[in-house]
Specification:
The chain contains eleven helices and 15 strands. By secondary structure, the chain is α/β, with parallel strands linked by helices. Strand 9 and strand 10 form a beta hairpin. The protein starts with 8 loop residues before the first strand and ends with a strand.
Length: about 325
């Protein structure tokens, strides 16, 4: 089955799924338009690249978004493939752009303030990354700013906030792990969940340890996933790849994967190693510097999860190394 739908679809009556191209291996981010007589709500946007702007201009005409009126946009989290077109969307629809408050702060810091490239470089070096990969980070920081443009005002959402529509309510649910304050959105009448990147159908979302963020993102992620099982959900509408028919089963599979991955990481510590050394053994296929950075940060999330569970130990010196207790 091809995981990349290239046409606008209507997976649930009144909800349109719009494939927005992104220059990433996942190829598309799937945005959603929730149609309502009181005003349409858009969920997620894509990177600010010409191909994405063209697709949105076409979708605006096809679905009559401007003609019917867009009441607001919800961006699930600050990653460039979700928030990049925020200024474009604001200019197109004159509608407020909403994120959870914590995500707004991170987005402003990363994309508008002086980026924390030095802190990130130190973080990577301490965890064993070679100098050439740290230099790549600095080049990538400059490139990233060209694909994200934010409006002057971003409207803060709160966990548990409900947005009333004419025939349903959209409930904001804060989920940690993929980012510290990702929003997923529950359509109460249709019993569908807009998953963002929190739950994907085929791959496991990236759960990474970064400086100045959640010190145990994997624990937060697993706890957040279990919270979603409290909701009656008929279908998951993720930002990438397939729709999810049985969300609870997919949640269970992701949790099981992380437990197995943790065991694998622990077994690799046959001698004290940096996170980078563990990541090189854990991810066996060739990775470019961009991919390796995420492989390292994901490995560190597992290592810190195991350390805080007192299953392994950490030695802090010139390099941070992990070992058996």
């Amino acid at each position: 089955m091809n995981p990349y739908e290239t046409e606008i679809t209507e997976p649930v009556k009144g909800i349109f799924r719009i494939p927005i191209p992104v220059p990433l291996p996942l190829k598309f981010v799937y945005a959603y338009a929730v149609m309502d007589p009181q005003g349409i709500w858009i969920i997620d946007l894509g990177m600010d690249v010409p191909e994405a702007r063209q697709v949105w201009a076409s979708a605006d005409q096809t679905l009559g978004l401007s003609a019917r009126g867009v009441a607001g946009v919800i961006v699930t989290h600050y990653h460039p493939d979700h928030i990049g077109l925020a200024q474009f969307a604001y200019d197109l629809w004159h509608a407020p752009i909403h994120l959870l408050e914590g995500e707004i702060a991170v987005a402003r810091r990363i994309f508008e303030d002086n980026p924390t490239a030095i802190d990130m470089a130190t973080f990577l070096q301490k965890n064993g990354a070679p100098a050439e990969e740290v230099l790549f980070l600095k080049r990538e920081e400059n490139a990233r700013r060209t694909i994200v443009h934010l409006p002057t005002e971003l409207v803060a959402l709160e966990d548990g906030q409900r947005i009333p529509l004419s025939d349903t309510t959209l409930q904001i649910i804060q989920q940690s792990g993929h980012t510290d304050h990702q929003a997923v959105i529950y359509d109460e009448a249709r019993q569908v969940l807009f998953c963002g990147d929190q739950i994907l159908s085929r791959i496991t979302p990236n759960i990474s340890l970064w400086p100045d963020s959640d010190p145990n993102p994997l624990a937060s992620y697993l706890s957040s996933l279990n919270r979603l099982k409290e909701y009656p959900i008929r279908m998951g509408l993720p930002a990438h790849e397939h729709l999810i028919d049985d969300l609870n089963s997919r949640i269970d599979a992701i949790i099981a994967h992380h437990y197995e991955r943790g065991d694998e990481v622990e077994q690799l510590l046959d001698e004290p190693q940096t996170g980078y050394q563990v990541a090189r053994r854990l991810f066996k296929r060739p990775l470019n510097p961009y991919q390796m950075r995420f492989a390292l940060s994901e490995t560190l999330a597992h290592l810190e999860y195991l350390r805080l569970a007192q299953r392994i130990a950490r030695d802090d010196g010139e390099f941070i190394r992990y070992r058996h207790r």
